[in-house]
């Protein structure tokens, strides 16, 4: 009986450890856990959200250039980026707001959603990125527009427009980033806050886009 | 070297390993113990979070989620491998929350001397029934509720508050404001602290979902604590020192045993030992 018990223990251990080793080597789960859990600061886990209101800047957070897809769309009007992960309470709360403002429908299974909408004659390109489902290149664009020390927080919203850059003496891309539920408790307040972000982007774009090339 | 000193070294070793993120070392593993990836210094992921994400809202009719079998199996196999090797030894020898409760346990014992009602409570039937709460938490809060509703244990977890929320607020003064579950989690943390300061290993006994996951492995683990009944004096010194409140002379592969070895150190006849297989 004792020998049989030991045999069962050994077999179970071999099966478990072999399956674990196989998973780590062949399934990509190690990278998935790293990029989806360890390197994402889950706002619902820390029960906090950033206190900062939207902060505008010319300089990208990590010093990298604006991605091509942003520059391409910026020639038509401001760009609004939204980053989320699959499991994200605040993302679930904010998505209906974005869906209404940009008149678009999407689900948590959509990796990338792109929609252009006219706001009083100015086109705004909405790009919704589900970090868990897109390539690393696209995922890493979040760090370009994040606020310092908040590169991994989701949901993150960025409006990219243009403005006169005194340091460079020319019109360059100018962006503002906000997080979470934008410190607003109700649907209507959140909608007003996102709309204000977009309006600020449009106002600057209409004022300075003539000098942008 | 004294067994308890060895255990202390092991606990500090795992505590520092769990916090290697402070020096930039982060991995894609799941901890085999109760520790939060939201801690700014954390070096791996919480297995409970991985479970929750894997099945999040998969049966929610309004906003169905995506079932991720990899994130379900990965922590399951890590915990399973650790469990079959050493049962709940991870709770006694590696878990940083176990280390915390090792410290508070001494205070709890002093409080017991002043408030004997607490000691009587631990010998009552209520204590025995309360021990099942951790299994209920594991099944409902970690699996069923995230699966159907979306609310997760990690949203209100006292571990997340203690090692995630508080350090984040300290490191970024004024940088964050309370979110939805902040105050609920704060109340839970206060209750958690009261619990561990009044009942030795109170969290491990009654509420730890990971302890609940590992507990059944004590029945089949490759090491276990064995008592040589024939030579036992029944002095009950082992039971007195047991932080989990187990009746040691009469136990065999008890699911509550965390293999801390305090009974082994206390036994005057050396009839309690760690046994292989």
Strand-helix topology:
The complex is a heterodimer of chains A (213) and B (277).
Chain A (H helix, E strand, L loop, with lengths): L1 H26 L1 H10 L2 E2 H4 L1 E3 L4 E3 L10 H7 L4 E6 L4 H14 L9 E8 L2 E9 L5 H4 L1 H5 L7 E2 L1 E10 L4 E10 L7 H22 L5
Helix pairs in contact in A: 5-8
Chain B lengths: L2 H16 L28 H9 L13 H18 L2 H5 L2 H19 L1 H7 L2 H6 L2 H16 L9 H14 L4 E3 L3 H17 L3 H6 L1 H6 L8 E5 L9 H5 L20 H5 L5 E5 L1
Antiparallel strand pairs in B: 2-3
Task: Tell me about this structure.
The complex is a heterodimer of chains A (213) and B (277). By secondary structure, chain A is of the alpha/beta class. Chain A folds into 2 domains: 2-38; 48-211, Glutaredoxin, CATH 3.40.30.10. Chain A is 43% helix and 25% strand. Chain A contains 8 helices and 9 strands. In chain A, the strands form 2 sheets. Chain A has a 6-stranded mixed β-sheet, with helices on both faces. A two-stranded parallel ribbon of chain A has the order 1-7. In chain A, a hairpin with a 4-residue loop joins strand 8 and strand 9. Chain A starts with a helix and ends in a 5-residue tail after the last helix. The mean pLDDT of chain A is 92. Chain B has one domain (3-222). Chain B is built from 14 helices and 3 strands. A two-stranded antiparallel ribbon of chain B has the order 2-3. In chain B, helix 2 (47-55) packs antiparallel against helix 3 and helix 5 (96-114) crosses helix 6. The chains are: A alpha/beta (213), B mainly alpha (277). The interface between A and B is large, with 49 and 60 residues.
